[in-house]
Write a structure and sequence with these properties.
The chain is mainly beta. It contains no helices and 11 strands. The N and C termini lie far apart (about 40 Å).
Amino acid sequence: QVQLVESGGGLVQAGGSLRLSCAASGRTFGWYAMSWFRQAPGKEREFVAAINWSGGLTYYGDSVKGRFTISRDNAKNTVFLQMNSLKPDDTAVYYCAAASASVFTTANTADYWGQGTQVTVSS
């Protein structure tokens, strides 16, 4: 069983940066691939970024490539999402997710979800 708790969301102006964190419980964190998804009001959940268990493999959604960076610290049971050059279209609730897979980019692959953290980008 893995419990995930996101933090770091907030209100930022366009062009600014935020760093999201997702803290995981359990000693087996390093076994799980981790991903970030987001959901804006009235829209479907969207893939943002993924990372494999070691951190050596990462994937990004087209809309965030070159602006967002996913990383993880297995010693601290934490995955991060560094978000730079934020745009109003990045406004959404951001969720981290874990899966017992090599890496995953689809929401239905996730085994565990956090409660989400709100990111609001003003223009």
